[in-house]
Amino acid sequence: MSEQKRRLETSPGNAVPRSRLTRRAFLTATAGGLALPGAALRGFGRIRPRRDGAVAHPQERPTPSPSQLAWQRDELALFLHFGVNTFTDREWGDGTEDPAIFDPSRLDARQWARVARESGFRAMILTAKHHDGFCLWPTETTRHSVASSPWRDGEGDLVREFVDACRAEDLKPGLYCSPWDRNAPSYGDSPRYNHMFVAQLTELLTGYGPIHEVWFDGANGEGPNGRRQEYDWPRFWGLVRELQPEAVIFSDAGPDVRWIGNEVGSAGATNWSAVDPEVVPYPGATGDDVMDMLQQGDPEGTVWRPGETDVSIRPGWFYHAGEDDEVRTVENLVELYFTSVGRNSKLLLNVPPTPEGLLHETDVARLLGMHEALTRRFETDLAAGLAPRRQRVDERLAVEELDLGRVVEAGTVELREPIERGQTIRRYTVDATESADGDGWRAIVAGTTVGYKRLDRFEPVPVRRLRVHLEDLHGEPPPIGVCLYAG
Ligand code: FUL
To answer: Where are the alpha helices (DSSP H) in 54-99?
Structure first.
C-alpha cells in the first residue's frame, strides 16, 4: 500500500482537504500505474491508423457518430453524487460503511429531474456505485446495497427511480459505476473482480432501458490481498457497446467521450475533438502529454473523442452541510458555460442531493438563476437571419463579412462549425466596425479552434459590420455560423 493511500485510508475524514480532492490527485494517489498493455486497447472502437502525411484527406478526417453528435448538442448534463458518503459527510468512503446509514427521508428523484429540466439540462448522470462499493440498486452481486438499507424497507431501487424520473421529465439518463471498489473482497484478485464488475454493468445496462452515457473513472487501487487490480477495459467497453450500442462511453481514454483534464470547469482554450488515442491509452494514465491531450485534443488526431467538463457546484462532489455557503454563484455558473460549452465541450455539472434525498434550495435557486441568465443573454441574436458573405482569400483562409444594416451594441460573439463533417478551423479573428462603408475596423476577438460552439466575450462595442477571418487545417474553411449578442 502506498504511503499516500495509507494516509487516505487511515485518517478519520480524508487526509486531503475535500476541496482539493481532485480527480487527478486521486488518481495519482491511488494509481501507481496500470499493468494493462496499451496494445490490448488499441483495436477498440473506431480507432483508425495514423496517417503518414500531416494533412488529412477530407474523407479520412474523424467525424462524430450520431450518439456523439447528440451528446454534444445536449450541452448540459447534471451529475448527481449520492450514496453512503452523503450520510457520513465524507468524499470517499472506505467500504466499511454500514448500509443501515443509507436512509434518505424524503428522496424524490422527480425533484432532481424537474429542476434539471427547468434549468435547461438535457441529461443526468447518477453515481450508481462510488468507490465505497455501495450499490444504489438491489444488485445480485453483493449485499452492500440499498437492499440492506432501511430506505423503502430494503425494497427500494434508486437507479430505477432515477431513470423513471429522467424519462418523465424528458432527460437522458446516464450512470457512473466506479471500477474502484473498496468493499468488494475480490478487488485485487483481477479476473474475479472483473467478472463481478461485468455482472454489475450487465445489471445496470439490461435492467433499466436505454442508458445514454456510461461514465468510468480510472481510479485504481489495491485489494485486500495487497495486489493492484488490473481492469479489463476492452471487456468493459465491449460490454457497453453490446448492451447499449447507442450509449456514449466516458473515461480519460474514451472511447467516445474524454475527460477534459481538470475539475475546475475549464476546457482548453484550444480544444480539438479529435485525439491521438495512443497518448491516453487507458483511464488513469498520467503525464504531461496525457494532460495536454485531454485538455486540447489533437488537430491531427485520428479518433473523434470530444471533451466533457465535469465540475461541482460545491467544493465537494458529495453533499456536506458545511458547504452550504460555498455554492457557486449564478455569475460563476454562467462563466462555467463559457469555459466549457463555449469552448467546444459539454458541461457536466455536479449538484449533490442532501441526506434527505433532495437538491438543496440554494443549489436549486442557483441552477434556475443560471438558466434565466443564459436565456436572457442568448435570446436575441443581433445577427439573426443574416448570411455571412464569403470572400475566399487562399486555399486555407477565408473571410466572412456580415452587414447588420444598423449599429448595435455587442459584447459576445458565437462561432460554430459544422462538426458533422469533422473539426478543421485552426484559428479565427473577428473584427468589427460601426461604419457602414467599412472603415475603422478593429479586432474584437481572436482565438484557436471553433468546433461545436465557440463563445467569446469582450467589452461591448458598437457594431455595424463584422468580419471573421478563418484559418483551416486542411483546405477551404467550412461554412460557419455566426451569432452576435449584446452582453
Ligand atoms: C473522481 C472521484 O474520485 C471523485 O470522487 C468524483 O466522483 C469525480 C467525479 O471522479 O474520479
So the answer is: 66-74, 84-88
CB 125 within 8 A of CB 215: yes
Q: Convert the pLDDT of each residue in 129-186 to its tens digit.
A: 999 999 999 999 999 999 999 999 999 999 999 999 999 999 999 999 999 999 999 9
Query: 82: which 3 cell numbers?
Result: 449520492
Q: Are residues 434 and 373 in the same domain?
A: no
Closest CA to 162 of 94, 97, 211: 211
Query: For 263-395, where are the E strands, in sequence order?
Result: 274-275, 303-304, 307-312, 346-350, 389-394
Q: Is 197 in the pocket of ligand 1 (CB under 6 A)?
A: no
Choose the final residue of a domain: 378, 405, 421: 378
User: pLDDT of 282-309, one tens digit each?
Assistant: 999 999 999 999 999 999 999 999 999 9
Distance between CA atoms of residues 167 and 163, nearest Å: 6
∠ CA 168-169-174, rounded to 5°? 90
Sorted by sequence, the CB contacts under 8 Å of residue 90 that are 6+ apart come out as 13, 14, 318
Residue 81, class by beta-carbon neighbours within 10 Å (0-12 exposed, 13-18 middle, 19+ buried)? buried
**Pair (208, 69) in one structural domain:** yes
Counting from 1 in the atom list of ligand 1, the atom nearest the Cα of 92 is 5
Kindly give, in sequence order, each residue whose CB lies less than 8 Å from that of residue 242, ignoring residues fewer than 6 positions away.
none
CATH of the domain at 166: 3.20.20.80
We report the CATH number of the domain holding residue 479 as 2.60.120.260
Return d(Cα 336, Cα 354) in angstroms, integer.
Answer: 23
- pTM for this one? 0.91
Residue 231 amino acid letter: Y
Tell whether ligand 1 has an atom less than 6 A from the beta carbon of residue 219.
yes
Candidate of 28, 30, 182, 217 to mutate for ligand 1, largest count of ligand atoms within 8 Å of Cβ: 217
- Total domain count, the chain: 2
The Cα–Cα gap between 334 and 411 comes to: 15
Minimal-distance CA residue to ligand 1 atom 3:
23
Q: How many CB atoms lie within 10 A of CB 70?
A: 16
Record the cell numbers describing residue 262, joined without a space: 481538470
Q: What residue numbers bound the domain in which 444 lies?
A: 389-485
